[in-house]
């Protein structure tokens, strides 16, 4: 199965490395010419994944047309750019493995819905889970959810990408896998705020648990299965991203918790903190679905410049209620 990768950020590069194990050829499309040059000339992505020696069998290109004729395409552009990139890619009936985590602003569509609209002939799979790109690229043990409604395609993709250190767990719940990844980024910002504001480890654990309750309410309302939300792509990724400054979302939250403005924290960065884009559209989607998501609403307010103490007081003043 010849693999192409759309997106030369940290995660696209790490996944290209996964797909290239054993010397299998992989084509990676990157938007930045310096990324293409760095990968082809020095076998390193010095812009987005510095310090990792990449396989010689990864060939980078700046032309989306070079992705024609592959057997599967891993879609690893940031969620807000998936539509425009897929519209410009010769996808046809090539299976798409969606690896971005987010919800499209304006349309409130999950990435899977965006992909179906932009590439109507392509079968869809979702790869998601607790996966810091640096660790995956370094070959450290990692497990992911690989969700696809077509069991045969799911098995072929899992067999192609699996190695002892990279274990895909099969699922038929595409929506569930997507929702976990999209929502956890927003919750990771909230946990970062707790860290930045010095509110303590009890508060962070409470936020992870109550945030997971929000993820579950929203996911069930959108047709996800609770087992998926409690699995690698939901709870697993939530725990990872809510506990480390290796997470861009958590780090953004730390800055907000220290009283810095979102605009200042997001200015000039080349890497993506998906939660900042997902939060406002998730708040809209939750309202549309009639789902209460107070932590998500708090993150939106903080991104819009609300005072941290006032937001914490508001959350703590909510009426006492049953846990379930
Ligand atoms: N970095 C990680 O550890 C992981 C990232 N992800 C997800 O993968 C997706 C991509 O993230 P990363 O690879 O980390 O990106 P990154 O933060 O390393 O790099 C930014 C990426 O955004 C792209 N970009 C910027 N403007 C663009 C535009 N107008 N059109 C198309 N692309 C544009 C850049 O070319 C670059 O590939 C995100 O949805 C992220 O949540 C998922 C799992 C792990
Ligand atoms: O999705 C990720 C880990 O699974 C990466 O998290 P950040 O985007 O917050 O760095």
TrEMBL record:
Positions annotated to bind sn-glycerol 3-phosphate: 101, 129, 131, 184, 237, 247-249
InterPro entries, sorted: 6-PGluconate_DH-like_C_sf (IPR008927), 6PGD_dom2 (IPR013328), G3P_DH_NAD-dep (IPR006168), G3P_DH_NAD-dep_C (IPR006109), G3P_DH_NAD-dep_N (IPR011128), NAD(P)-bd_dom_sf (IPR036291)
Location, primary (coarse class): cytoplasm
Pathway: Membrane lipid metabolism; glycerophospholipid metabolism
Sequence intervals crossing the membrane: none
Residues forming the catalytic site: 184
Name of the top EC class for this enzyme: oxidoreductase
UniProt keyword annotation of Lipid biosynthesis present: yes
The Glycerol-3-phosphate dehydrogenase NAD-dependent C-terminal domain, residue ranges: 173-310
A matching Pfam family: NAD_Gly3P_dh_C
Binding site for NADPH: 11, 31, 101, 133, 248, 272, 274
Reaction(s) this enzyme catalyzes, per UniProt: sn-glycerol 3-phosphate + NADP(+) = dihydroxyacetone phosphate + NADPH + H(+); sn-glycerol 3-phosphate + NAD(+) = dihydroxyacetone phosphate + NADH + H(+)
Family of this protein: Belongs to the NAD-dependent glycerol-3-phosphate dehydrogenase family.
HAMAP family: NAD_Glyc3P_dehydrog
Protein name per its UniProtKB record: Glycerol-3-phosphate dehydrogenase [NAD(P)+]
Biological source species: Sphingomonas donggukensis
């Amino acid at each position: 199965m010849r693999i192409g990768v759309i997106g030369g950020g940290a995660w696209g590069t790490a996944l290209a490395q996964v797909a290239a194990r054993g010397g299998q050829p992989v084509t990676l499309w990157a938007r930045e010419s310096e990324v293409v040059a760095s990968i082809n000339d020095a076998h390193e992505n010095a812009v987005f994944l510095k310090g990792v020696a990449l396989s010689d069998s990864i060939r980078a290109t700046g032309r989306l047309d070079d992705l024609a004729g592959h057997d599967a395409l891993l879609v690893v552009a940031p969620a807000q750019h998936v539509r425009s990139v897929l519209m410009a890619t010769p996808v046809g009936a090539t299976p798409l493995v969606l690896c971005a985590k987010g919800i499209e602003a304006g349309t409130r569509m999950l990435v899977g819905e965006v992909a179906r609209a932009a590439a109507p002939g392509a079968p869809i799979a979702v790869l998601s889970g607790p996966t810091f790109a640096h660790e995956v690229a370094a070959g450290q043990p990692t497990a992911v959810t690989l969700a696809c409604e077509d069991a045969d395609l799911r098995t072929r993709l899992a067999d192609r990408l699996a190695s002892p250190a990279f274990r895909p767990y099969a699922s038929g719940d595409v929506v569930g896998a997507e929702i976990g990844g999209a929502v956890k980024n927003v919750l990771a910002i909230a946990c970062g705020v707790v860290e930045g504001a010095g509110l303590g480890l009890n508060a962070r654990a409470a936020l992870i648990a109550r945030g997971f309750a929000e993820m579950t309410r929203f996911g069930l309302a959108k047709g996800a299965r609770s087992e998926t939300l409690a699995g690698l792509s939901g709870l697993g990724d939530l725990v990872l991203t809510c506990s480390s400054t290796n997470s861009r979302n958590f780090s953004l939250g730390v800055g907000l918790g220290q009283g810095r403005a979102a605009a200042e924290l997001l200015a000039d960065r080349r890497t993506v903190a998906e939660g900042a884009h997902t939060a406002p559209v998730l708040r809209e989607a939750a309202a549309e679905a009639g789902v209460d998501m107070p932590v998500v609403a708090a993150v939106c307010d903080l991104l819009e410049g609300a005072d941290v103490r006032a937001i914490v007081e508001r959350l703590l003043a909510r009426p006492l209620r049953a846990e379930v």
